[in-house]
Design a protein that fits this description.
Largest sheet: 2 strands, antiparallel
Number of helices: 14
Mean pLDDT: 90
Order of helices and strands: EHHHHHHHHHHHHHEH
Distance between the termini: 27 Å
Radius of gyration: 25 Å
Shape: globular
Length: 372
């Protein structure tokens, strides 16, 4: 005769939430940020014996300490935002576009080619229009190649788009040698420095204002496109389930190609803004790794273009501040990166508690009392 075994509940259970109120979700995020600052402060004091508040003040000063620093911080954040917004449609479709770096380079290379080859042949207004069109087309073409292979032969888009980055880098390296100025320098230098042909105009004397306004407009347009258009709905359905999308009559291959054309075009615009708007030159590192950082921007915001405004500013703020504390307090860059990592870890980790609920087993006495 076998005795029945008492089934005991696990000490901790994790269950997915059906939903969570927005104020509660934001409260969790705020608590996560505060906790990250506390942990970072403990780490700072334990390792360096410095006052954590002075270090935090140094981080803020590095990002917003002077008007110039503020403008550069906003510029860098908006460039990162532009690329992140470009990735959002593809990521929402569950097409893992890791090729933003190459698409930015393709758009920048097209812009540089127009500036160098047509700078003295066309009126500046027409030249700028041509630069924008060329940059958009170059970025779109660079993105649509892996999209076509994915739609037709179901290739791995992550590897494909990643490899396209290296091809774009080598193309830029080749043309830098072709256009190098002066010869033998291995760099292009400032393009059309004397005539400023192909340079995007300044607004009100502010060098970066046009770039900021363009990215702001693109962010709002992409948000509306993803949330209030038929194409945006199709992207969401394909992202949830390709089988369901086909069942309801959506042409999945067409959606993939169309969405990647948009994604690449937006990254191509970022390349144009870098070459024609801010840097006025072309290098293999002009994107500065932002194509990969933008993946984090997009993920942190859950592919919401408006949410990416916060995440892009956060990452740039931490990066700019890290450089400042490295200089002021004599700390190496690795220390600053550790602080950034702690803060980002808490911000990413809090999303777990927003998505899931933790339930602890009730004490044995209380559980027994409930069954009496």
């Amino acid at each position: 005769m076998t005795q029945g075994k008492t089934h005991r509940e696990p000490l901790l259970r994790i269950a997915k939430r059906d939903g969570i109120a927005r104020p509660k979700a934001w409260a969790i995020r705020i608590i996560a940020v505060l906790l990250s600052l506390v942990v970072s402060g403990i780490f700072i004091f334990a390792v360096t014996k410095l006052n954590p508040f002075q270090v935090y003040e140094g981080i803020f000063d590095g990002a917003f300490g002077t008007p110039r620093r503020s403008w550069v911080t906003v510029r860098d954040a908006m460039m990162l935002l532009c690329i992140g917004v470009g990735l959002a449609p593809a990521f929402k479709m569950r097409f893992w576009n890791i090729g933003a770096e190459g698409q930015v380079l393709a758009g920048g290379l097209a812009a540089a080619a127009c500036m160098i080859c047509l700078g003295d042949k066309l009126p500046n207004g027409l030249l700028i229009v041509l630069i924008v069109i060329a940059g958009i087309l170059a970025g779109a073409v660079w993105a649509v190649i892996p999209a076509i292979f994915k739609a037709k032969w179901n290739t791995n888009e992550t590897l494909f788009t990643l490899m396209m980055n290296y091809v774009a880098t080598q193309l830029v390296a080749y043309f830098i040698i072709v256009w190098e100025s002066p010869k033998g320098s291995g760099k292009v230098g400032i393009i059309n420095q004397s005539t400023e042909a192909g340079w995007l105009p300044q607004i009100g004397g502010y060098k970066y204002l046009l770039t900021i306004l363009v990215v702001a407009v693109l962010t709002v347009l992409v948000y509306v496109y993803l949330n209030y258009s038929k194409h945006g709905y199709e992207i969401s359905v394909v992202g949830e389930s390709e089988r369901t999308a086909r069942y309801v009559g959506i042409k999945v291959g067409k959606v993939i190609v169309r969405t990647m054309l948009l994604s690449g075009a937006l990254c191509g615009i970022a390349g144009v803004l870098l070459v024609s708007g801010t840097d006025h030159t072309i290098t293999t590192t002009i994107a500065g790794g932002q194509g990969f950082t933008a993946v984090m921007v997009s993920w942190l915001a859950k592919f919401n273009p408006l949410g990416m405004i916060f995440t892009s500013f956060l990452l740039v703020f931490l990066d700019r501040g890290a450089g400042e504390i490295s200089t002021v307090f004599g700390l190496n860059q690795s220390f600053a990166d550790i602080l950034s990592g702690i803060i980002i870890f808490f911000i990413i980790g809090c999303e777990f508690f927003i998505t899931y609920r933790l339930s602890f087993r009730k004490p044995a006495k209380k559980e027994a009392a409930e069954h009496v």
